Inverse folding.
């Protein structure tokens, strides 16, 4: 089995914080501990204000091994309200990237 | 973590706090909910969930949660309460409210709720069983929360309509009958943080992924605005002018649906004449929008078929909110987008089951026409406002607070406040409401946590169950769903359980009808041909049947909407009325029009010179439901501070840095906020999120958890209601100025 990762389609990430809290619940993380943290980028471009969000899996992300081991989706992926996170093998996620406008692939340790 | 069982249920209110609808899995171990997840099988949310739902365990088992009845033992405001039993609490309430009813009549008691959610059903049931006509969203300026929109839709099209995201079908987007809206207009709403009015916000994202283009109308660059084909950064409070401007262009350029207009509407010529007054030139001046943008938006919306409008509570908060709602709803009728796939589809409570009476018709069905009429004799605002009298059963909130203070035309003696934090939440002019509430002889608060309102005025507090602890039902809009209890927490009881018990004491007739809450639920579910247990057995939810009155599409063609079974709409004329006969009968302008906000650069230029920024309150947070959840650690750390968003061009000359605490003030008061300097707000606008109080601070008077420092409604006025009584709360149009904190005085204060 190849290395696993998270593909984020940040064209559609709304910054809703669901992934963060899903992860905290799953791992009983204390306040201040984040398995994933959503970043906001607000910038004036030529004709508009660009508002983008991107969740960043931290060192506390274990890709939800306890869930994926028995076929369940990682908690963040399952609950993501925009359904913009995909869990899978990195090699396959790369192929997904070819098809999408704005993506980031994370392969946490 | 392990679990003994999984209970599937429906999220609705206490917990996530919301208007509900999600399918939920509650993981239980040793009679404790240890984890909450979305239910993948559920068509409303497909396994997704918001942060508030996922933080349920911290909410349910929070050390500050009230888990048994309390009575006040010290002076009001000292925070001294003592544990009592349910029997003691209910007996005391029965005795006290019974005596007030004998001495002053049942109308002397207000039954106060916050925003709709799951509470409207049980609280109106209790109010009417007690005999009071005064069911009220106390504090809600201009009654500006959905009711103005509902009233406008009911009057002009005989039903309510919502954006079609295939939410009435178990197959959702794959339903062969469904079409995707080619264009979606998001008007004064940010669908990211939650689920307004029974609508899962991220359905809009589902549609975007499938190809819907967006037009966004908002004073803020939301995430949706940044992804829109067209963004109209509108001046707050001028949505009515924009709607009329769009109508103007659509009619002038013949972009409307002629066949639909001819066959199914009346009053087109009158609307055309009215809209002629709203040229793009004039509308541009009123709204701060470029003329071209108004014309382009009209063309994009009307040129796409189907297209749909998704709107938010700022519509109600416009001056003359019920009129603005009328104008916007005309847009989907003019373009033939009413009740067609991918348009604005008629939304009725699933299977005709009423949980929360949303219309006069439903009130009649539950309580009888005679009874509802009788309520009008004493209902506050029913005499002053024909629309209030004829639509739903609310007391008008601005008049209510005046009456609490004046005792005219009759005294108000007590308040039953159920899951509503009036002083930390919806009440405009907080000081006035504080004063009014303190005058009450007796106040019951039913809630899950202490809050500024319970601290200031509660005499008895009843502990309320979260949705995970109760048996209930939901039919707003679809599917018809049951809510199943997973556990018991302390001595908490559900709103229905509390209210049914007291209702029986005030109206012994009810004892024969409902022994348990389940009897009541089953009675309400009879029209659907099912029962609580049956539906629970069958998976917990069911969509309305194809071809039934609560399932789209084109029901006006099939005679499914009118009581007489004829094709057409449930309006006086049977048609969509661009010229509203009901409005005319109620003494209102039958056609939509624009009215300038009560305070603005145009209407009150002197005040504007002193207070040059428009404060828009109420931008939603995905981790809070209005004034809730500030004490939930996982949530608070996502959105920790009461902030104000200021445009860099405003902050710079004032010397305000990002992250610095500033004060916001006007003649009514001053509050403190942490500045977020950002280009997402319009330079003439500051965005000040609502619902802020600080549970970590002292709750006793005079602090009341910091409301005088941080609650934006210290600055908003009362008495700005529309001519109809519905709409006009100045939550989006209050003028303020922002300044750096002054050393000494502000920092310690
Ligand atoms: S995959 Fe699991 S551990 Fe990693 S961020 Fe998502 S929820 Fe947290
Ligand atoms: S849950 Fe999904 S949409 Fe929400 S912030 Fe995380 S990645 Fe973005
Ligand atoms: S706000 Fe929406 S996602 Fe959250 S629990 Fe309520 S219905 Fe579900």
């Amino acid at each position: 089995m190849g290395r696993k990762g998270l593909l984020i389609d940040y064209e559609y990430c709304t910054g809703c914080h669901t992934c963060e809290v899903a992860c905290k619940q799953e791992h009983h993380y204390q306040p201040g501990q984040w398995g994933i943290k959503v970043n906001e980028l607000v910038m004036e471009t030529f004709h508009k204000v660009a508002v983008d969000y991107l969740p960043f899996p931290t060192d506390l992300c274990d890709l939800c091994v306890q869930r994926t081991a028995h076929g369940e989706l990682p908690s963040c992926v399952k609950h993501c309200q925009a359904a913009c996170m995909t869990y899978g093998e990195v090699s396959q996620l790369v192929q997904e990237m070819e098809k999408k406008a704005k993506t980031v692939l994370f392969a946490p340790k | 973590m392990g679990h003994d069982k999984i209970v599937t249920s429906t999220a609705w209110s206490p917990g996530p706090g919301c208007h509900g609808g999600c399918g939920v899995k509650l993981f239980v171990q040793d009679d404790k909910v240890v984890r909450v997840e979305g239910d993948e099988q559920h068509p409303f949310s497909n396994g997704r969930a918001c942060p508030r739902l996922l933080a349920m365990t911290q909410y349910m088992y929070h050390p500050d949660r009230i888990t048994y009845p309390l009575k006040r033992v010290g002076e009001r405001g000292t925070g001294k309460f003592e544990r009592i039993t349910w029997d003691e609490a209910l007996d005391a309430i029965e005795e006290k409210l019974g005596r007030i009813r004998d001495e002053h009549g049942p109308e002397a008691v207000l039954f106060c709720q916050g925003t709709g959610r799951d509470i409207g059903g049980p609280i109106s049931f209790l109010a009417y069983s007690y005999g009071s006509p005064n069911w009220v969203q106390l504090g809600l300026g201009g009654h500006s929360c959905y009711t103005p929109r509902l009233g406008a839709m009911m009057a002009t099209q005989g039903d309510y309509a919502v954006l079609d995201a295939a939410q009435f079908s178990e197959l959702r987007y794959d339903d062969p009958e469904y079409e995707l809206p080619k264009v979606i207009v998001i008007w004064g709403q940010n669908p990211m943080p939650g689920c307004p009015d029974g609508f899962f916000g991220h359905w809009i994202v589902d549609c975007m992924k499938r190809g819907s283009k967006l037009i966004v109308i908002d004073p803020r660059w939301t995430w949706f605005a940044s992804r829109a084909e067209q963004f109209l950064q509108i001046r707050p409070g001028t949505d009515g002018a924009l709607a009329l401007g769009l109508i103007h262009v659509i009619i002038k350029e013949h972009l409307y649906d002629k066949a639909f207009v001819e066959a199914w509407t009346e009053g087109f010529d009158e609307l055309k004449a009215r809209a002629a007054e709203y040229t793009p030139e004039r509308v541009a001046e009123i709204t701060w929008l470029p003329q071209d943008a108004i014309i382009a938006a009209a063309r994009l919306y009307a040129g796409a078929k189907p297209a749909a409008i998704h709107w938010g509570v700022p519509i109600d908060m416009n001056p003359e909110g019920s009129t603005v709602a009328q104008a916007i709803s005309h847009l989907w009728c003019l373009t033939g987008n009413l009740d067609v796939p991918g348009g604005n589809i008629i939304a009725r409570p699933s299977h005709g089951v009423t949980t929360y009476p949303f219309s006069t018709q439903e009130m009649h069905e539950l309580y009888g026409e005679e009874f509802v009429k009788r309520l009008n004799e004493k209902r506050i605002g029913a005499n002053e406002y024909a629309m209030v009298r004829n639509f739903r059963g609310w007391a008008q909130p601005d008049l209510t607070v005046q009456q609490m203070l004046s005792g005219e035309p009759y005294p108000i003696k007590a308040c039953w406040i159920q899951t509503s934090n009036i002083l930390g939440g919806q009440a405009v002019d907080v000081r006035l409401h504080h004063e009014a509430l303190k005058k009450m002889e007796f106040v019951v608060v039913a809630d899950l946590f202490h809050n500024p309102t319970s601290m200031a005025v509660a005499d008895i507090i009843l502990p309320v169950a979260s949705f995970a602890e109760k048996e209930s039902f939901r039919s707003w809009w679809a599917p018809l769903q049951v809510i199943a209890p997973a556990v018991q927490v302390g001595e908490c009881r559900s709103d229905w359980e509390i209210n049914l018990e007291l209702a029986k004491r005030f109206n012994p007739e009810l004892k024969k009808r409902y022994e348990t809450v389940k009897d009541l639920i089953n009675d309400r579910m009879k029209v659907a041909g099912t029962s609580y247990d049956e539906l629970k057995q069958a998976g917990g939810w069911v969509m309305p049947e194809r071809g039934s009155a609560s399932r789209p599409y084109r029901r006006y063609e099939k005679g499914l909407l009118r009581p007489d079974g004829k094709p057409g709409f449930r309006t006086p004329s049977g048609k969509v009325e661009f010229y509203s006969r009901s409005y005319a009968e109620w003494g209102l302008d039958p056609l939509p029009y624009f009215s300038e906000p009560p305070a603005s650069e145009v209407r009150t230029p002197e005040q504007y010179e002193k207070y040059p920024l428009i404060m828009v309150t109420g931008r939603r947070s995905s981790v809070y439901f209005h004034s809730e959840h500030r004490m939930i650690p996982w949530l608070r750390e996502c959105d920790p501070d009461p902030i104000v968003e200021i445009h860099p061009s405003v902050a710079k000359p004032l010397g305000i840095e990002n992250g610095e605490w500033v004060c916001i003030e006007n003649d009514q008061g001053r509050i403190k906020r942490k500045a977020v300097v950002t280009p997402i707000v319009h330079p003439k606008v500051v965005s000040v999120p609502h619902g802020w109080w600080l549970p970590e601070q002292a709750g006793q008077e005079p602090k009341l958890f910091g409301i005088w420092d941080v609650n934006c409604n210290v600055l908003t006025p009362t008495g700005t209601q529309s001519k109809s009584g519905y709409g006009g709360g100045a939550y989006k149009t209050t003028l303020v100025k922002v300044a750096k904190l002054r050393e000494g005085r502000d920092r310690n204060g």
User: Anything to note?
Assistant: The interface with chain B takes residues 11-12, 14-18, 20-22, 24-26, 28, 31-32, 42, 44, 48-53, 75, 78-84 of chain A (CB under 8 Å).
